[in-house]
Backbone:
């Protein structure tokens, strides 16, 4: 059945692409509007020159660093808050009052405190990644079946060992939902942070794919290159999510029901 | 966990009171820590005292300046949110009900979806320039996907038995769509609405910060350039409060419209 | 009530009362009303009763997962204050660790708990392998719980319990979620694992919860009948059927008579509970 259906999948994307190209050809030669073939040429150029891969790597490095910082704090704090009620009761109000703060809104403060370089961008990423991680870790720990904890207790296993051998693995699927949400948000925030740093930082040259896009817009008006960057940003987002899914399957072969 | 179960929670009202108290206590502790750090930093441009933020917040509200910023942002938000719902829900229904529609549209959706709204900002800056159109475009784009995908998934997840039950009562297809499939998809559509609301707020701030001459997002950046840090933080507080209230409102709506649904859904 | 006294009881409930506070309203519900009970070493004791009679609460208190509001629960004369490896439990919903294979589940108590202390890895593996064989799960060691049928999952739960070598085996409606055929097979196998055909002195103490009367009669030496609202022990009956028990046991007139007697006790209780339901509220089962 899928073999009969597959041609349909290509109708609209290809049709739009052709229309876009035809529309581009009716424009005057000096027009800056992006056209598929020009975008392709520009993609080849950006990849071959190594500029796009470098920028992507820089952005990814920042995401990784910010995520690592936020993730490890959120994991430890989340486990404690989920397992020990007094910890949760005291910390929950603070977390809940910071949660609605949009990460991008903190960018001006981050620039003020940390300048226009990598630290500010990492700060935004870490802030963005922290909340989905901690919320899902707490939910995961609280959602652990009581029976499993009891089963370990009746086998005589001590409390802290239970936290490690029962609660953590049982909460892992939920923690992973947090990881995936956090990575998606982190990747989105890094683009925003780099864009804004590029536009408001007065050309500090902080690098990253977001800044690269802004430079193409503001200084060169290379719209083809901007479209290349957009596609690259989308592809990286997809790759991150698929990589995490793969990791999840590899780490949790038992968790059929969570997929 | 096992211990908490035996501790015997106190009755309802008492519990609520103690939560409020705990909340205030935690926030007070936070304010004191903030204040001490600010004293230690000793530079009110970098970190002002919480009291001066509160004062500026009061002044911004009293002078009506905050109202102007907030009104502009909320108006943009409401317009784009409505646009996203008007496009996303019907498209989602279409794709959920008819396989050919989803075969056609799904590839385009899947190609566009990973490209975050924020990545559209440079191109949109070129197309629309700095003004109202840019944030409206970005927010609509961002809010569109949660509406569309959740509507589609909700319609597809309709219990086949319910549809068959309706069919055995001799009901025609239109009525089934209207009275069986849409109501059964409603909880998920509303979950989509909430996710869309959160995403819309986030991108509103980003879009206004970079590409709008007014609004709350613009205001934070404007005051930063004037080095009025207390006002920057005051605007951030208002943005967060409005974001929180929007989510509360949508949650309330969700509970009002679908009281039979228990799932409140994940909050990204 | 029968109260034989050789060598001192294994388990003892002394004036045990258990109440719960309902979270929202703050009302108090009595789950177990003053229960006295002694359980001998090597005895197979079953508690039956309608849902809400507090039989699971009693088992949880024996396990140490819950503590009595009044009175004491003791093992070998020492008051039970929390869960411990001497009192292992099998759960109705299996409570297997989904991220561990059958082998790892059975190994869990020995690996992380006190009863595996002093065992070398090889000894531990051997003991686990023996228990997996004992319950008939040989060949499924590397499977995850979600790949097993309900009956196989409960075999795994029993192996996990037996591997840890507890003194007392607590079983909370272990076969309630299984189909009728699987149930009958597992009942016979449980008796075999318990050591029905072997030396009486080597048998462990079993406390078994069920709502199925035939199961209670088939398995046990004594049956405790409980009533609901509030949960109370109303009768303790000696079964007295010869062991080993087989299919033929189920057709014996004593078996039928005893089952009928227990049903009469519970049926009366169900009627009484129905008429009192308006005022009593609900106790937890």
Residues:
């Amino acid at each position: 059945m899928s073999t009969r259906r597959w041609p349909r999948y290509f109708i609209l994307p290809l049709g739009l692409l052709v229309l876009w190209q035809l529309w581009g050809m009716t424009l005057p030669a000096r027009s800056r509007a992006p056209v598929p073939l020009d975008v392709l040429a520009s993609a080849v150029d950006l990849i071959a020159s190594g500029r796009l891969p470098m920028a992507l790597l820089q952005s990814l490095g920042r995401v990784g660093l910010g995520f690592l910082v936020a993730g490890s704090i959120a994991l430890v704090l989340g486990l404690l808050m989920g397992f020990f009620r007094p910890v949760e009761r005291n910390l929950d109000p603070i977390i809940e009052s910071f949660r609605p703060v949009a990460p991008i809104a903190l960018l001006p403060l981050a620039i003020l405190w940390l300048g226009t370089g990598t630290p500010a961008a990492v700060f935004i990423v870490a802030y963005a990644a922290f909340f989905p991680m901690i919320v899902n870790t707490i939910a995961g720990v609280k959602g652990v079946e009581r029976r499993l904890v009891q089963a370990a207790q009746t086998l005589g296993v001590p409390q802290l060992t239970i936290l490690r051998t029962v609660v953590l693995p049982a909460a892992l699927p939920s923690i992973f939902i947090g990881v995936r949400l956090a990575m998606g948000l982190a990747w989105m925030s890094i683009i925003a942070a780099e864009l804004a740093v590029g536009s408001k930082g007065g050309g500090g040259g902080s690098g990253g794919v977001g800044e690269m896009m802004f430079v193409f817009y503001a200084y060169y008006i290379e719209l083809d290159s901007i479209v290349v960057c957009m596609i690259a940003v989308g592809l990286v987002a997809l790759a991150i999510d698929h990589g995490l899914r793969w990791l999840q399957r590899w780490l949790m072969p038992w968790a059929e029901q969570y997929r | 966990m096992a211990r908490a179960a035996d501790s015997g929670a106190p009755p309802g009202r008492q519990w609520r009171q103690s939560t409020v108290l705990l909340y205030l206590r935690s926030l007070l502790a936070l304010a004191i820590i903030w204040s001490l750090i600010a004293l230690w930093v000793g530079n009110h441009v970098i970190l002002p005292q919480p009291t001066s933020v509160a004062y500026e917040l009061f002044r911004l509200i009293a002078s009506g300046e905050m109202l102007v910023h907030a009104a502009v942002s909320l108006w943009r938000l409401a317009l784009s949110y409505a646009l996203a719902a008007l496009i996303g829900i019907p498209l989602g229904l279409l794709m959920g009900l008819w396989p050919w529609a989803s075969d056609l549209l799904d590839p385009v959706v899947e190609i566009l979806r990973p490209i975050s709204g924020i990545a559209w900002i440079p191109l949109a800056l070129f197309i629309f320039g700095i003004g109202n159109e840019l944030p409206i475009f970005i927010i609509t784009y961002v809010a569109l996907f949660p509406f569309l995908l959740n509507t589609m998934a909700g319609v597809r997840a309709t219990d086949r038995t319910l549809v068959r039950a309706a069919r055995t009562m001799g009901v025609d297809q239109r009525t089934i769509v209207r009275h069986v499939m849409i109501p059964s998809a409603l909880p998920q559509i509303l979950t989509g609405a909430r996710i869309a609301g959160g995403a819309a707020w986030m991108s509103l701030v980003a879009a206004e910060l970079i590409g709008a001459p007014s609004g709350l997002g613009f205001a934070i950046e404007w005051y930063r350039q004037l080095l009025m840090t207390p006002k920057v933080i005051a605007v951030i507080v208002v943005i967060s409060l409005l974001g929180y209230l929007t989510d509360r409102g949508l949650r309330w709506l969700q509970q009002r419209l679908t009281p039979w649904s228990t799932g409140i859904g994940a909050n990204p | 009530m029968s109260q034989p006294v050789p060598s001192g009881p294994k388990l003892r409930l002394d004036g045990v009362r258990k109440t719960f506070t309902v979270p929202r309203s703050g009302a108090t519900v009595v789950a177990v009303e003053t229960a006295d009970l002694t359980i001998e070493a090597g005895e197979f004791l079953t508690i039956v009763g309608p849902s809400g009679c507090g039989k699971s609460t009693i088992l949880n208190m024996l396990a140490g997962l819950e503590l009595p509001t009044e009175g004491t629960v003791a093992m070998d004369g020492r008051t039970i204050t929390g869960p411990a490896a001497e009192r292992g439990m099998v759960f109705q919903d299996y409570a297997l660790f989904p991220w561990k294979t059958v082998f790892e589940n059975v190994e869990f108590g020995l690996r992380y708990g006190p009863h595996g202390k002093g065992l070398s890895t090889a000894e531990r593996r051997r003991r686990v392998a023996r228990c997996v064989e004992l319950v008939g799960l040989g060949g499924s060691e590397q499977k995850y719980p979600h790949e097993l049928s309900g009956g196989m999952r409960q075999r795994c739960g029993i192996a996990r319990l037996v591997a840890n070598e507890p003194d007392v085996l607590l079983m909370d409606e272990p076969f309630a979620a299984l189909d009728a055929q699987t149930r009958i097979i597992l009942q016979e196998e449980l008796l075999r694992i318990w050591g029905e055909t072997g030396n009486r002195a080597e048998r462990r103490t079993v406390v078994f919860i069920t709502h199925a009367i035939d199961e209670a009669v088939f398995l046990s030496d004594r049956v405790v009948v409980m009533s609901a609202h509030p949960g109370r022990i109303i009768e303790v009956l000696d079964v007295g059927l010869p062991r080993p028990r087989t299919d033929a046991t189920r057709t014996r007139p004593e078996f039928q008579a005893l089952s009928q007697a227990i049903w009469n006790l519970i049926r009366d209780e169900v009627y009484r509970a129905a008429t009192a339901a308006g005022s009593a509220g609900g106790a937890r089962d």
